[in-house]
Automatic annotation (TrEMBL):
Gene3D superfamilies: Endonuclease/exonuclease/phosphatase (3.60.10.10)
Native source species: Elysia marginata
GO terms assigned for molecular function: endonuclease activity; exonuclease activity
Name of the molecule in the record: Endonuclease exonuclease phosphatase
GO aspect biological process, one term: GPI anchor biosynthetic process
Amino acid sequence: MFNWEERFQYMASLIEGHEVDIVAFQEVRFSIDEANEVKISQLQKAKQHLPNHKWMVAQPAGPVELPKNANWKRWTEEGLGILSKFPIISFTKIKLTSQGGRDSNPRIALHAQIQVTQSPHHVLNVVAVHFSYDKQQQCQNAQQLLEFLESQDLQNIIVLGDFNTYPDFSGPVDVFTSNVVKSCPFRRPHVPLFYDAAMDSHRVEDPLPLSFSNMPSPGYISRPDRILLSPTFKVIRSDLYGHGGPYINSCYSAIIMKRTMSMLRSAFDSFIRRNGYSCLHDCGPHGSCRCGICVRGDCIADFSVKSAVIT
């Protein structure tokens, strides 16, 4: 993940500044603490920057697929996580199986029951997702999650995360929000229709709340990230926070220092004849790895923090 420590400090300032109560994360990395051989996640370190989010759950989906010929081993698994200001009273790791398709990555959903008030007893059912990038498997992921929700007979449901849906294929979201879905073959479980929090409060004259940039250009192009709500909620306001420009300005010195250290590490690897892919992440379709750094023009990733204010 690009400059994770610096990026999360900036993300934490957005989360705290806008008083976001519950946050869902995708592609959370897990590693083994060599000192005591305990599995730890990035969110455990992230909590240091969010002291008000006292409750956390993080679950791995499966092994991290390292870049081809990587000459390092840093993370062992990745998955989903949820941070909350309110008590997480229980959670369920939902394994999403897939048949066919080209995506071999294990997929899960993470269901957390969060108690927002004690009297009256008010519980939110928050489900974090990161669906497959393969269209057929996206449909399967959505169907399996709906069947889980049907089996649990839940109320006050929020499904949020990366649905990997794009303008040319909206199936994995449509199965939650519509009775008529042509792009995904599926059986409608006995679950009320969800609605899109961002679009419910969106005015025609406003720009679409796009959240994904195929870095470093052409800018925001799609909306794979969604917050879907069951009918028991009413959206008061929906906002999209975060942009690469302020992040670069606030973290520029730290990023330069990180890149310098990466170059020195890569130079040492070359000196001891350690060959291979030296960047700590995949540089994506528009970048390449040079001396431990992903390069191409202004190759610093934009990111967004999404929240919906609901009652």
